[in-house]
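Exercise: predict the fold of this chain.
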Amino acid sequence: MGFTERTLKKLTLGYDQRAAYRSQSTSINATQTSVADQETTIDLTKGYVYQEVFTADGVNKTYQVTKNNAILPSTVSDVMVMRNGLFLNEVYIDNIDGSNGTLELTFLPDNGDEIVIIWFMALPTSYKLFQEQFIADGTQTAFTVTKNDGQISSSTDAIILMRNGQHINNDYISGINTLTGTLTMTFTPDQGDEITIIWFY
C-alpha cells in the first residue's frame, strides 16, 4: 500500500535532547509521511502490519527480520525504515530480499543506532488509518483516543507512535486497552511534548 512522501529535509538526529531514548548527534535525510483516513475496517491482529527493532553494530548494514516467518515485501513502497526515530527516504534502502527477509541499507549505521523496520503484507485495499495528537501534561503515561469511536488496534505492530515528530518503537508501549481506547507508554513524556498516535483499524 505504501505511504505518500510529502517533505524531504535534513534533520539532526539529536535535536530533541529531552527524549531519553535519543542520544545521536549525526544527521541524515529524512522523509515525513502522511496518512489519510480510509473507509471500512479490517482485523489487523491477523497479521498485516509488522514492526521489528534492531540495534546497529557499526559493522553490518543488512538486517534480517524474524516476524511473519521472516518474510518481507518485495517492494520498498511497502516498507518503512527508521533510524533513531527518523523516517529514512526510500533511497537509503539498497536492496530487499523478500523471501529471505533481509533488508540492506545504502549506508552503515553507527554502532548503537536504533533501526526499526515496519512492513505491510497483503494489506487489504479496504482499510482504515487514523491519527490523533495529544499534548502531554508532564504527568500522564496513558493517552485515550477518540477517533474511530475510541477503537484502537490490539496489536502494537499496527500502531505507529511519535513524540515531537520522532518515531518511538513499540517497545515503549506498555499496554493497550481496547475497551477504552487507551494506550499506555513505558515513560512519562515531558510537559508540552506532542504525542501522535497513528493506528490501523
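Check your answer against the key: The chain has a mean pLDDT of 80.
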